[in-house]
Amino acid sequence: MISLAGNLDLVFPVISSLPASLPYLYISTRSSPLSLGIRREDKNIWERRAPLSPDHVSDLIQKTSTKVYVQPSNNRIFSDYSFEKAGAIITEDLSQSDIILGIKEVPISKLIPNKTYCMFSHTHKGQEYNARLLQSFLDKNIRLFDYELIRDPKTDVRLVAFGKFAGYAGMVDGIHGLGLKMLSMGFNTPLINVSMAYAYPTLDDVKYHLGIVGEHIKNFGFPKELGPIVFTMTGSGNVAKGVQEIFECLPHEYVKPTDLETLVNGYNGEFKHLNKIYGVKVTPDDYIARKGGSKIDYDEYKAKPELYTSLFHEKIAPYTTMLANGLFWNPGYPKILTKPMLKEIQNNPKNKYRMLTISDISCDINGSIESTYKASSITDPFFYYNAANDKYYQNFDNGGIQMMTIDNLPTELPLEASNYFASRLYPIVYKMVENKFDDPIVSRSIITEDKKLKPEHEHLYKSLSNIKSESDRISVISNSQRKVLLAGSGLVTKPLVKYLLSQKNIDISIASNNIDEAQKLASGFQNTKVVELDVSNGTQVDSLVSAHDIVISMLPATLHMSLANSAIKNRKNMVTASYISKDMESLNQSAQNSGITILNEMGLDPGIDHCSAMKIIDEIKGRGGKIRSFVSWCGGLPAPEDSNNSLGYKFSWSPRGVLTAGMNSAKYMLNGKTVEIDGSKLLSNSFKNVPLFKGFNFEGLANRDSLSYIDVYGLNRQELSTMFRGTLRYRGYAELMESFKTLGLLDSSRISFKGTNTELFELKNCEEFCKHALNIPSADLDVVQDKVSSALKLEKTHSRVRDVLDAFRSFGMIRSNNILSQNAQKVISPTILDGFCSILQRNMAYDLYEKDMVALYHEITAEFEPGNYELHKSSLVTYGSINTDGTVNETAMARTVGIPAAIGAKIILDGLVKTKGVIRPTLKEVYKPTLLNIERLAPEDSIIFNETCTKVGIDELKARSIAFRL
């Protein structure tokens, strides 16, 4: 072991010469060290890194006697047990920690005031997207320590970083992608055996496997059409070093940039050029020139980069097979490859097998590689840019250059990356635990302290100016305990309560007429209490509303009005997840006069569908585009593997709303034609095929009056050809439900029981219901079959008749003794519809280990110039979760309805919603913070939208647009 003195000036010079895994030892003179917390990473599912390893934690505890608290995580590369064995305390609560370490940004809602936080905050450059986070550090009196600012005082070189591991993973992923690209072109190569970096347990495993692949290259080579294979590498920092280290695991030969033309043009198919990969390391000297032709003058280049241009497309790219870009680039400097340059390369027949893949490890959006228009993900790492028509594609079917633009590459090698990072961070953490924040290196790494920006960062106040006054007001609100009245205790309320209580300083009163249900809900949470609610008792409602800061009504829509009127009377804001009814809309002026906001449609559909749509619409309009088409689909369904009944549908609550929705009238516009459908004909006018995703067998129904949303979304009716909102179901649903309707099973008029109209009667079993509902003498199969065949006007052997009979048989309506309830259920004011709902609810409920699914899909077409279209798509597919015993933990429907409603309450409490009256989340002040909070949800609560934008011509638009395919 090596013992180092506690002076960082002595520590840092030797860091670079020590192995990454070697611990550092210090002599501690402090008797009361600061405590340390290590938070669980929750930005995305791939983030498995940790800022310190268990070995470092063990050493820190032994040498300082500090307490280390670690949040539990099954995702972290180091297990909870390994930290516990090292002496750490495993706990959710990090409030006991003085210093809290993480890797990525911490969600604002999870920041604990008056702490020291260490992370990559992405704030010190004045990044707009994290301005509110920076302001929160000030508001909450947080000392912010940013890893990116840990630099050598003499050279200003970063001392703590992951760059080399980005290079490792980026090169491995690029090689993996190149193997796929070559295969798509009809060439099997040894590279097809290389996996993504995350598929290997360690970096040593990566290198070992590349050695095996290298032997295949040596023995069998590449197809002669592809030779010679040339990897071009840009950059000179740690990223480039990582790239080169991976490259050198394969049989290789380095060549000079000036030799590329001779190498490629002189190639004659000889095997000696095919059993290795040629590598070329390029610097700006090789491709940057002054406009006019003279060589680069670095002093002038730095001072006036606009005088220079890139010749990469002439000197390097025509001879490159794969480009691994690790270049550090700043705006204002020449792009090394613009889209026109790529088009010139791609259009040259000589370059058919050149520039196949770009692994843009730097991932500067619209940066040094102009075709990098987005960051790809580890889950979906590649997209394809066809420079010939300037279009992007998600697969290789349409040709083009393969792009890899993952922006969190080090997470693919979490073990080595964490050990390497931790070994360099450890001396700094030791200093902080000793409370030596005045140490020069530690001090200059701090951005905020004592509710102020450090002097060297005061220029960032300018980036906070737009939110400063708002944040001052929010901080006052946030420091006091807020009281939320939640009306309702049904299925969607658990995620709502969970989210709100995670925000701190919130107490929730659960008001319900079902006390047992409410108490069961409250039992899982602190800071909750249960109160009885009778919405017909105005005095009681006023008493409850006046005692709280905000009301959230998750009651049936017909019961909102009592609470809304009381909210206006008592000047309390309110949130619901329901459509704005005519009665609710009539309260708009009263709510404005009272100075309150009643935020409606804050759930799933309506709710986050509005948020996602308006984000895209406003962005298009901001760029001068015209919205030509809007199509939206949404459905709450069983997961595909659990859609195992005749309707392909299941119920977690009363089916009545679902059944009656199939009889609503509808109005929409599709490709210039306005369509109106009477409610009695909605089911027979279903869309038999809704091709959203290849893996789903969807059909759909038009959803109410789509045309009303033209004004709701601020669209121009004269510019629109399509305006459509629909409900998704699995194929076969509408036809079977239409059959039920034809048979009278959806009849909501009173039932005649034994020849008399009665207010109260008993249904003994499903067979008896079948007899009376279908008006037949018995529920025998042949009798029921005759009735169904006759009513549907079809032969007895017709598939539709068989489907109905199969459904009846599964419901227990044919030769069944299934009893509707244990005591022969009694129904007050019964209808055929009510009886059928009872049967469906018993027979089509979710079973153990079954989960639900929510699918949401928007397609928006915009035109910027005649014939120049953009096809925007935004989709969300999420599933419910189940407990280990097979019971439901949380449904997807509950999550996607409850959490948005909770976020709506949060942003109102935080003072972000200034508009008064009856509103929906189509306002930017509502949808923008809502989507931001959704992005910051913990992984187990994630609601993830997948957005794409493709430039298309009219012919491709017709081929790809859902509107034209319906």
Written account of the structure:
Pathway: Amino-acid degradation; L-lysine degradation via saccharopine pathway; glutaryl-CoA from L-lysine: step 1/6; Amino-acid degradation; L-lysine degradation via saccharopine pathway; glutaryl-CoA from L-lysine: step 2/6. Keywords: Amino-acid biosynthesis, Lysine biosynthesis, Multifunctional enzyme, NADP, Oxidoreductase. Residues 37-169 form the Alanine dehydrogenase/pyridine nucleotide transhydrogenase N-terminal domain. Residues 216-405 form the Alanine dehydrogenase/pyridine nucleotide transhydrogenase NAD(H)-binding domain. In the C-terminal section; belongs to the saccharopine dehydrogenase family. By secondary structure, the protein is of the alpha/beta class. The chain folds into five domains: 8-161 and 415-473, NAD(P)-binding Rossmann-like Domain (Rossmann fold), CATH 3.40.50.720; 163-412, Rossmann fold (3-Layer(aba) Sandwich), CATH 3.40.50.720; 481-600, NAD(P)-binding Rossmann-like Domain (Rossmann fold); 604-639 and 664-731 and 851-966, Dihydrodipicolinate Reductase, domain 2; 746-843, Domain 3, Saccharopine reductase. Helices cover 34% and strands 19% of the residues. It has 33 helices and 39 strands. The strands form nine sheets. An eight-stranded mixed beta sheet has the order 3-2-1-4-5-6-17-18. An eight-stranded mixed beta sheet has the order 8-9-7-12-13-16-14-15. Strands 21-20-19-22-23-24-38 form a seven-stranded parallel beta sheet, sandwiched between helices. Strand 5 (116-119), helix 4 (131-139) and strand 6 form a beta-alpha-beta unit. Helix 1 (8-15) packs antiparallel against helix 13 and helix 22 (608-622) packs across helix 31. The longest helix has 22 residues, at 163-184. It is globular, with a radius of gyration of 32 Å.
